[in-house]
Write a structure and sequence with these properties.
Blueprint lengths: L3 E4 L1 H14 L4 H16 L10 H10 L9 E6 L2 E5 L5 H19 L1 E9 L6 H9 L3 E6 L5 E2 L6 E3 L4 E5 L7 E5 L6 H10 L8 E2 L14 E2 L4 H21 L24 E8 L7 H17 L13 H13 L1 E4 H6 L5
Parallel strand pairs: 3-4
Antiparallel strand pairs: 1-13, 2-3, 4-12, 5-8, 5-12, 6-7, 8-9, 10-11
């Protein structure tokens, strides 16, 4: 592949941290953002990986994002809290929120934390994974700026509104589902444009609402489910908006400043996130949970597959990519490699 270079994770970590520090980010901000981006790059979610470092540096320098936020949490009940991100990058706030939710769930059984005054937080799976690694069933989601048409609609209304769910599996990597409620994430459009590739059919539309495969002509994305069943994706996007924005008092998708398609990199976007932690110990008990999820995932993988297909549990593809990239290095587009001062 001539359009990417393969680099070791530790090299990317050093250069990504340095780039964010150079843009003014404090250690908590730079460390959390780097951790989340490398999670995505390791697992093959390249649209949300280190390629976003240049954007984050731009908004840090522009003033949209506070480089030195004072993150504060306000516990409002045994199982509920709000966390104020102080207009910082969303990664540090999201990691702090899931850590808080997991600690509260050990007491209350179930705990939810809403995040306010935040910004883009990258791959939702990074935070669900952190919760699963802490022994919880964990959910993380965020609303984003409007880029997705409604089912039957011809203009942007919802964001890509990602959600992720993680669950621990004894002696295995967690069960991990990370998905956008749109047909594809917007950052994948940007990535394909950078790489000069065409999009799949039926995932995006141009300014007139007609389908397009050219990333340069994309005006909006389509909701998950496509032309016939897009009401499902639109409904899920609405759920994310309900919990991340409506419930927390954050900016609604269609009222939010766009992430990149704007000249305004000074005004905070005031995004909302939402996370949930469930402690299996407080339901049927850890032993029963461990036995059941081990049986469930084993039977799932053993299920009969169609000819030429394979059956995988959520996360299996990502763990396989992670193992491969540990051997070969992480592919980075040339533009990002140049920004990180890693281009040859």
């Amino acid at each position: 592949m001539n359009d990417v270079v393969f680099l070791p994770e530790h090299v990317l970590e050093v250069r990504t941290l340095a780039a964010l520090r150079d843009a003014g980010a404090n250690e908590q901000t730079a460390g959390a953002a780097t951790r989340a981006m490398l999670h995505a790059s390791r697992l093959g979610i390249d649209s949300h990986g280190v390629r976003l470092a240049a954007h984050y540096a731009k908004v840090l320098r522009g003033g949209r994002v506070n480089p030195n936020p004072a993150i504060k949490a306000y516990r409002t009940a045994a199982g509920a809290a709000l966390l104020d991100a102080d207009d910082g990058l969303g990664h540090a706030a999201a990691y702090a929120a899931i850590e808080l939710a997991c600690g509260m769930a050990k007491e209350a059984g179930v705990a939810a934390v809403g995040v306010v005054r935040s910004s883009h937080y990258g791959a939702a799976g990074a935070y669900a994974l952190a919760g699963a690694e802490a022994g919880m069933i964990a959910v993380s989601m965020s609303n984003t700026d409007a880029i997705v048409a409604l089912h039957g609609g011809a203009e942007r209304f919802h964001g890509t509104n990602p959600m992720a769910i993680g669950a621990p599996v004894p002696n295995q990597r967690p069960w991990l589902l990370d998905m956008a409620t749109s047909s594809i994430p917007l950052n994948r459009v940007f990535l394909y444009q950078t790489l000069g590739r065409t999009l799949p059919d039926g995932v995006a539309a141009d300014q007139s609402g007609h389908p397009t495969r050219d990333p340069a002509n994309v005006e909006m994305l389509m909701p998950l489910g496509g032309t016939d069943f897009g009401f499902k994706g639109a409904g899920l996007a609405g759920l994310v908006t309900l919990l991340s924005a409506v419930l927390t008092g954050s900016t609604l998708d269609h009222l939010m400043i766009r992430m990149a398609e704007t000249e305004d990199f000074e005004t905070p976007r005031r995004m909302g996130h939402f996370c949930l932690a469930i402690d299996p110990d407080r339901f049927a008990g850890r032993a029963i949970f461990d036995e059941a999820i081990a049986r469930y995932t084993a039977d799932l993988r053993a299920s009969t597959a169609r000819e030429g297909q394979s059956v995988m549990a959520p996360g299996d593809r990502e763990w396989a990519v992670e193992a491969e990239r540990a051997r070969t290095g992480i592919p980075v587009d040339l533009q990002t490699a140049e920004f990180l001062e890693l281009a040859e």
